[in-house]
Write a structure and sequence with these properties.
The protein contains 19 helices and 30 strands. By secondary structure, the protein is an alpha+beta fold. A 7-stranded mixed sheet has the order 4-6-2-13-10-11-12, with helices on both faces. The chain has a 5-stranded mixed sheet with strand order 1-25-19-20-21. Strands 8-16-15-14-9 form a 5-stranded mixed sheet, with helices on both faces.
Length: 734
Amino acid sequence: MTDHAMDAPYRPAALDKGRQGLIGKGVDRYEGPLKVSGTAQYAFEGAPAGTLYAHVVGATIGAGKVLRVDASAAEAMPGVVRVIVDHPDLPSTGGSSREAMGDWTDAIDHFGQPVALVIAESLEAARDAALAVEVTYDTRPGRFDPRDQPAVVDHKIGFLPNIVKGDVDAALDAAAIRFDQSYTTPVHFPAALEPHATTAWWEGDDLVVRASLQILGGARETIANRLGIDKERVRVLAPYVGGGFGGKTGVGPETVMAAIAAREVGRPVKIALPRRQTAALVHHRGDTVQRIRIGCDAEGRMTALAHDSITSQKPDKGFLEPVHFGTIPMYAAEHRRFTTALTVVDLPSTGAVRAPGEAVGTFAVECAMDELAEQLGLDPIELRRRNEPEVDPTSGKPFSTRLMLDCYEEGARRFGWDRRNPVPGQNRDDEWLIGHGMAAAVRGNFTVNSEARVTLTAEGRAVIETDMTDIGTGTYTILAQVAGEMLGLPVSAIDVRLGDSDLPLSAGSGGSFGAGSSGSAVALACEDILAELARRMNAAPEELVLIDGTVSAGGRSSSIADLVRGKPIVAHGKTGPGQVSRRTSQASHGAQFAEVAVNAVTGEVRVRRLIGVFDVGRVLNEKTARNQMVGGMIWGLGYALSEDAVVDTRTGQFVNPDFGEYHVAVHADAPAVECHFIEQVDDQANPVGAKAVGELGISGAGAAVANAVYNACGVRVRDFPITLDKLLPGLPPV
């Protein structure tokens, strides 16, 4: 096995000099035909014979205690097999550990908390019987409104510490120009299209679960710990996942419940959470209150930057929205303060959702930069240029690569930024007010431990195996491209096997680290195969030329199948973070530009253009990378204009927990979005040189829209989303 931690810059030579012409190209999705033909099997589809269906009975109060559960009427209904109550292993929520999930308890700390599980012969029978379970409660006053709870700054929750560098208050007092505003963002749901679902069955003492999950290695261990069995007895399958967006990074309660139910009744059991239960049983992004303070000189050069936030979480949970994560490396200012305070609530857990930190943090910072630019009489891009750091302004580490200025320049050129009128409300198209805005984008880059096995078969085909998942991001395709480029094989000669915990342990999908980490593991395995092929060719690896299944060196050629000689060549690759990861500041960067129209009569907002230019290291597949970026940009648009999970602060219940009322952006909301890349291979990020893609598109997109709305009509909204009621009172006369 080649085990290459990133202790020094590294890039496989064969990936750069490959002749197959796959890397960077918009290769069609490897699994696309399976998906469009309906033969790709998702978590809830297909099952062993005799499979039963389960439905969760959720608490109908937000805080209190279960006094009594009467399941007698439900148990007597046709088709009902069992109603499970008081089972000690039933989780109270989802999570990445037994402690995070919590055990079944009669103490209710959020609306929808599981109190029972109904198992029946059909989905309809299970759902109908769940309504017949009678639960008696003793209620208590709940902490349902985060804004009414005390905020604690000195806490130990979350992976991102508070940061104080220098004396921000003194620097602000001494600054020629001072800025101080607060912004708010609401609760956001992950909102994956595929339901959170599991099919579970036991094969003797071994458990098999087919689940909708993003990361399998941690899931296997969590499930085993939950059930009190060895993790080697648990097999997790997730070959196809219909979106995750952070909500499927941990093990959902439905997965554990299905496993428990299958063990209790001795038959396979499947569960799919309805949308309304998903809001209660799957974590969401917490709401935020963010105060931005900036001090600068008369030329706009910043001396102080403070980003102080408040967000919420349930008691005893380990995650806290890392609101200032994207602010840490963004702008130069000697004096810096980044804090996140905690309010404790009786609501479902908060967790990692769609670019945790940057997605909401950039709203505040990038809108603040727009406001400061107007205060200074500067162009917003020029203000950012003047505060572009040469090294990470917080840690002092050098950037691995950073093409932010190039993104500004190229984005401005493509958008026509020089034609923007900086005075709000001056550009009209009949009753529509037209505005233009921009924002910077950033997403931290991580390399995570990841392994892969690559086999050259006797037929000259390559087989890639890893427990990595493809949540719609293109993992199948890019891994085939990496192997194909290095081994000189077309994609049609490569088999990719993913989503099985029996395969080598990977990073999984999350944090935008999947492609760089798993792709690097495949590349390293391919290097070992090349070394063996070179030995069999009596040549050095660097002498090999591989294309279309043929290996050439020193004027000699052979097919890969002949070199294999009937005995498969098996290689393992492993990568992970190392010294270079710790010595450098790593992130993907970009610039977002938006044109909007605001109706001067109704306040309706229409996004007309959205253009992003991004620095993401090596682009492995232009088509799948662009798909992710465009999707992220549309998410940002939705965050700016519509997404808002509303809590009834009297009961703790979400009042809009489904797609009928939780308004994600749809086709009618989205213009023809443009995405462009400025490519520079980052050999300090990981061996394939690719940086974070998946969540970068969200960062800054909403702020660009918000800044464009202000430029259109002169109304500055700081409490997101931007809805009609917030615009109408301030609109100029028609």
